[in-house]
Each structure stands twice: as structure tokens, then as C-alpha cells.
Amino acid sequence: MDYDFTKQYMNPKRTGNVIRDLNPMSKVNLMLVLGLSPFIVQNYYYGFGMVILFVLFSAAAGCFRSFFSLYWKVLLLFGVFLFVVKAAFAPGEHVLFRLWGICVSTESIQSGLNIVSLVLAFSGAFILFVKTTPMDEFTYALEKKGVSHMVSFVILSSFQTITDLKQNAQVIMESQKARGIETEGNLLKRAKAYIPVMGPLVLNAISSTEEKSIAMDARAFSAPVAHTFLSELPEVSIGEKAVVILFDLAFVGLVTGRIVLWLI
Amino acid sequence: MAYIELNEVTYTYPLMKEPALQNISCSLELGKFYGVIGENAGGKTTFCNLLRGLIPHFYNGKLLGDMTINGEDIRKIDVDILSTKMGYIFQNPFTQISGVRKTVFEEIALGLENLGVPKAQMIEKVIEVAKLLKIEELLLNDPNRLSGGQRQRVAFASIIAMDSDIFVIDEPTSQLDPEGTERIFEIIHMLKEQGKTIILVEHKVDLIAEYADEVLVFQKGRLLKKGDARTVLSDLELLEHGTMLPQAVILERELRLNGIVLPKVPVTTEECIDLLRKGDVGYESN
Amino acid sequence: MKKFNKLTIFLIPIGIAVNVVGGQLAVLLKLPVFLDSIGTFVVGALCGGVPGALVGLGCGLINAISLPTLLPYTIIGVLFGFLGSFLAKKQMFSKFWKAPVNGVIIAIISTCIAVPITAILYGGFVGTGASVIVTTLMAAGWDVLPATFVSELSSELIDKIICLIIIFFVLKAMPARFVVKLPNGKHFIKEEQ
Do residues B112 and B253 share a domain? Predict the structure, then answer.
């Protein structure tokens, strides 16, 4: 057996990609600042500019495909339909088109573009964060900030439990089918199939927590000792810190600018 | 010297009328291998929970009598610290995997991370344990996708890596096939060779006969017998209480009933074969 | 999170997963309801408001990964956690007839919070089947707030009544020796010794 792979643990994890290698805390910070800035700027050119920026970032981080596999749904649902609804129903003076209750005006199109740019920009920032930040790196960064390792456990365990329960649900469904319980057909039949699957699933999952807690206790889960980490992330560089602070300052500037404009 | 001491311990789970353990008095020493046997719901698992301090710290209920671990009163002991000294493994291989680590290597390291072991030492230890338990080929696998038997071995590795002196092991093989069972017993045997203290609950009496120094028999919440493995396991009276005895003991009884007498009662299969091979057999006419 | 009951810590991920998988199963069976808050109420009822709220929060964040526009509604999930605990303390999970009553109460509360979010933030558009009702009503001349209210309330009522009935049975089927170990256990166990 070759134990070369253990060498990776000796050095902090790096991928070589500038965006991916940002510290998860920097990513959260940048996501919030960039994702929320269109709400302050209130200009849909800026909002759509951000959308394009996030798409470019995803490509630069080498995760365009997985980013877009989620983002296209938002683009379609909110970029197209939300715009249509807004354009059709928002009030406005300069009517362009009227049919039954529908009334399209220059103002309604404006308000449609505004809201769509906000929703798309924030969603883009959020998905980009999720796609460039592995959860275990995020929880590591949280622990380094002094958050309890139990929070890490809860976060990571949630994802694994979803996978496990989904698998169990499939197994139970198969066996229910074998016993003649129909999972297709009319609504009543399908509704009836829900309970025999969910019931045992929920009860088993809940009652397994007792053993799980004992098992984790045996792994010194609550031992009163400072933890060490097998995989570590690099220390945040001064350059990275500076960039994040710069963005934060710009954001604060935007907010004050907005407030000042209000007051005048 | 006695490490764990129980004096007239009686314990009742919450909401239960009948106690799960009644008037248990015994002492356990370091470095010995204790086999715990007896009928189902006889109090074996409750006994383990007591040794691990889960009673009274996790399960409430009513605890009477005195119990000390290394001189410390069980009621005052800090279970979080106790958990670092006493390894605990039980039957369900699925609930013993943390679900928060992506490879078996990282899974085994988890307990060491929690103990604050320095990284280089951690890596060394995980490799050592993996070699010992012959699970090197699993190290890069996802622990959440292993078979029951593989998971149980990973669970053992994770606990063994933490280097406790005492292992409480509750029916580790009840959900495994014969091959898996054999591998687990190899591991337990190895722990014994290393001088660890082992408290093992197990239905397979033949394996207990082979490895245990002492045997404790539980029945209906009482400690029916405790003593040297050979003496306890050749006690035919236990059969009347519904406790299984080793095959060799049963065979000896059958032979004797048919007028074939062995010089002594064998408790393991090897011992039985040995006696028969030597031909040291007496015949009695009925 | 230090002073939490140990079992509670392990129940939070289970609650989150039950929500997510319950919702996915409803989609898979093409049921016209969400059924994605069972875990929040169960954990809230058994372990207390804060753990329940954490389940709601976690579930909301995970749902937001596939559709970030759901993020603002997370606040409702958080509230459900506290509601679950509150209802348990008021013995509202003790009898079957109380389940639909709970369902109605919860549906009204959640609608009152969801409507402003949907109407103000998304102009009545939620991206689910309910959007069709909203747009139809709006095309018929309704204002955005009442249109959203009617559509949300109708779908919430069906969803929460069914949800709470399922939750009633789940809580009823929980073994007493397990429930007694949980922070809210005393509200479920009848005779104390």
C-alpha cells in the first residue's frame, strides 16, 4: 500500500485557483457585499453587470457547469417569468399595451428589470459561494473563528443524512411496491404511498440518534480538549485581507451615499 | 487490583417498573478479558452502559448501590473524560460511522482530532491501525458507502486508534456473516495480546470459550455466575437457565451419557479434538 | 450550543434531512403539497424552540442552494420550530382532532408572513404552481396582495393540515423511553413516577 496520499494532509489545502483558494470567510464576506450591492445601487445596469461578473467568476473558478446547472433555473423562473408578471401587472402611466387585466407600461418594464436584476444578482452570488466552497472547508473556517465543532457536525451531518435518508426512502419504496402498495396512479393512491414510506423513515432516523450520540461520545466528541485538524486551510494572506477590506469599505461607502441621498 | 467495582448495584430505566439490573456485585481487573453471556434482555447491554458511565449520566432512571471506576464514584465521574479512557463498540455498524468525513482515513482520524493529537502523530497512528486491522485498501473509500462488515472494522479501527486501555464491546458480530465475525475476533484477540482490558458481550459462546479469561453470566437482570472461563462454561447447570454452552461441553455431556468418558471437560473445540486424538478415553457400561 | 441536551444535537441534522427528503418524496409522488416541514415541527415539539428553529434555518439554507430565491422564506421555518415547541407545551399534539386545528393556525400564521415577502419582493410570483392562481386572479383585476394571500392560504391550508396529521402520528409512535430523554419529553409522557 502506498501512503503517499497522506502527504497532502501535511500541507494546507490549495487548489491553485485564486478564487477557490480564497478563505471561506472571505468568500462569505465578498458574497454578501457583491450580492447585496445591487440593492443599494438601485440600477439594473449595475445588477445585470453583477450577474455577468458572477458567471465569469464561475468560469474562472473552473466550476461554470455546476454553477450554471443551478443558475439556469433561477434565470428562467425569475429572469423571464418574474419579469413577465411584473411587466404585465405593475402600475404605470405610459401604457404601451393593454389586454384584459394586463397593462404593460414603460414603468412596469422598468420595475420588472429592476427586481429581476436584484434577484438574479443575489442568487448568483449565493450559488457561486456554494459552488466554490466545499462544506468541510466552510466548517473548518467556522471552527477557526471559534464556532463550536458541534456546529460543524450539525452542518456536515445534515448533508450526509439527506443522502442516507434518500437512499432509505428508495429502499422502502421498492419494498412497498413489492408488497403491492402503488406509488403511481391517481392522486389518492400516490398520497397513500407517502405515509408507509415516510413513517418508518422518520421513526428509524429519530431513534438512531441515541446510538449515534453514544458512538460519537466514544470518539471523544465532547472531550474537553482543544481539537487538532487533519486537513487544514492556508492562513489568510495579507493581500486577501486587503482586498476583502477594500470591498467592505466600498460597500459601506455605497450605503452611506444612499442614506445621504435619502436625507437630502 | 480491581479497577471497576460494583457493590449491590440495582438500576431501573426511566418509566420501567422492573429493574434492568439487580444487586450486582463484582469487580473487574485491568488486563483481563471478560466474556459476558446470558439470555436476551438479561441485562448485558445495561451492564455495558453502566461500565461506560452512560448510566446514570445519559440514561436517567434509578441507580442504587455503589460503583467506582479507578476509585472514582460513578455518579461523580466526568463521562466526557471517561470516554477518552474507555473505548466502546456496539453491534450496529451503521450508527458508528460519523457521517461527517469523506474517507475512511479521515474517519479513523476523527477521534484523534477530538483528542487533540498532533497531525504527524495522527497520520502515523491511522496508518498503524489500518495495517493492524487489514483495512488499508479501504482507506480512501467513502465510509458511508461500505458494507456492514467493513463499517464494523472501520468502527473498531476508529476506537482502537484512540488507544484506550479498556474496551467495552457489545455484540460486535451479531449483524455480520461468519467471515466478518472471524475478522472481528482476530482483532479482539490482538487487543488481548496487547494487554488491553476487554469486556465483550457475545452470543457465540464457543468464541468466548476460546479467548476469555473470565465469564459473567447474566439472567433476568441478575449476575448468575462469575468466574474463571473454564469453570463457568463447563457448568451444565447453566443450560437449565437457558444459557448456551460451548459445543465441546455439550459433546462431552452427550458422550458421557453414552458411556464415553473424557478425562476432563473440554471447553474449546481444539481441546476436545486433542483429548480424543490422544485416545485418553474411558468407557463405562450403562 | 454547548448546553444542549446531547441527543438534541444529533436530532437537528435528522430534522433537516426529514424536511428535505419529505419534500422530495412529495415531489416524486407528484403530490400537490410540499410536506417539507415535518422535521422542524417534530424537533421543535420534542427538543424545544431553539433546536426546532435551527432545523428550520438549516433546511431553509439547504433549499436555497437549489433556488436562492427561497432564502427570505427561511424565517418562516425558524418560526415553525418555536411554534412546534409552543404547541407541545400547550398539549396540542395529544389528540387527533387537534392536528387539523394546529394545521389551520400554522397555515394562517405562515401565510401572513409569506404574503408580504412574495408580494413585495417577487411581485406575487413564487415560481411554484401557486403563481398560476396569482396571475389569473391579477389578470381578473385583483390587487397583488389579496391575490397572493388567497393563493398562498389555500395551498398552505392543505399542506399544513396534512403535515400536522402526519406529525401527530409520528409523535404518537415515538417510544416513551426515548421521548423521556428529550428536553420537552415531560410534555408527552403522561404518568410521572
Answer: no
Considering its fold, how many domains does chain C have in total?
Answer: 1
pTM assigned to the model? 0.91
| C189 reaches B (C-beta below 8 A) | yes
> Quick one: pLDDT band at residue A247, thresholds 50, 70, 90?
very high
**Tens of pLDDT along A161-215?**
999 999 999 998 888 888 887 777 788 888 888 888 999 999 999 989 999 999 9
Residues in chain A: 264
Does residue C47 sit within a domain?
Answer: yes
Mutate to test the interface with A, among B77, B83, B158 (most CBs of A within 10 A): B83
What are the tens digits of pLDDT across the range A4-56? 888 888 888 888 888 899 999 999 999 999 999 999 988 999 999 999 999 99
Statement to judge: residues B112 and B125 lie in one domain: yes
Find the CATH number of the domain harbouring C12: 1.10.1760
Candidate from A225-229, A233-237, C5-9, C129-133 with smallest mean pLDDT:
C129-133
C-alpha B157/C-alpha B176 separation (Å) is 16
B13/C193 touch (CB, cutoff 8 Å), yes or no: no
Chain A neighbors (3+ CB pairs < 8 Å) = B, C
Cross-sheet strand order for the sheet of B222-228:
B86-89, B166-170, B197-201, B33-38, B214-219, B222-228
Are both B206 and B255 inside the same structural domain?
A: no
Q: What is the pLDDT of residues A104-163, one digit of tens each?
A: 888 888 888 988 999 999 999 999 999 999 999 999 999 999 999 999 999 999 999 999
Is C1 inside a domain boundary?
A: no
Specify if B286 maps to a domain.
no
Is pLDDT of B44 > 70?
yes
Write the pLDDT tens digit of every residue in B124-154.
Answer: 999 999 998 889 999 999 999 999 889 999 9
HEC letters along A80-146: HHHHHHHHHHCCCCCEEEEECCEEEEHHHHHHHHHHHHHHHHHHHHHHHHHHHCCHHHHHHHHHHCC
Chain C residues 112-141 with a CB less than 8 Å from chain A: 121-125, 127, 131, 135, 138-141
**Three cell numbers written together for B196:** 488491553
Interface of A with C in 124-183 (CB under 8 A): 126-127, 130, 148, 150-151, 153-155, 157-162, 164-166, 169, 183
Q: Do B161 and B31 lie in a common domain?
A: yes
Run of H or E residues at B181: helix B178-193
Q: Find, among B243, B261, B244, the residue nearest to B252 by Cα.
A: B261
Residue-wise pLDDT tens digits, C10-21:
999 999 999 999
What mean pLDDT, rounded, does chain B reach? 90
Do B193 and B274 reside in the same domain of the chain?
Answer: no
Residue B21 lies in a domain: yes
| Residue A135, all three cell numbers | 462544506
Shared domain check, B265 and B164: no
Whether residue B285 lies inside any domain: the answer is no
Residue-wise pLDDT for B155-172, tens only, equals 999 999 999 999 999 998
Number of domains forming the structure of chain B: 2
Domain range for C163 is: 8-186
Same domain, B82 and B214: yes
Specify if C2 maps to a domain. Answer: no
Residue A98 has pLDDT above 80, yes or no: no
- Given A115, A195, A207, which is nearest C175 (Cβ)? A207
Q: Is residue B16 part of a domain?
A: yes
Q: What is the CATH number of the domain that holds B147?
A: 3.40.50.300
Strand ranges, E, within chain B: 2-12, 21-29, 33-38, 62-69, 72-73, 86-89, 166-170, 197-201, 214-219, 222-228, 260-261, 282-283
ipTM of the complex: 0.91
The answer to whether residue C193 is domain-embedded is no
Q: Which domain holds residue B252?
A: 246-280
Angle, alpha carbons C42-C45-C51 (nearest 5°): 85
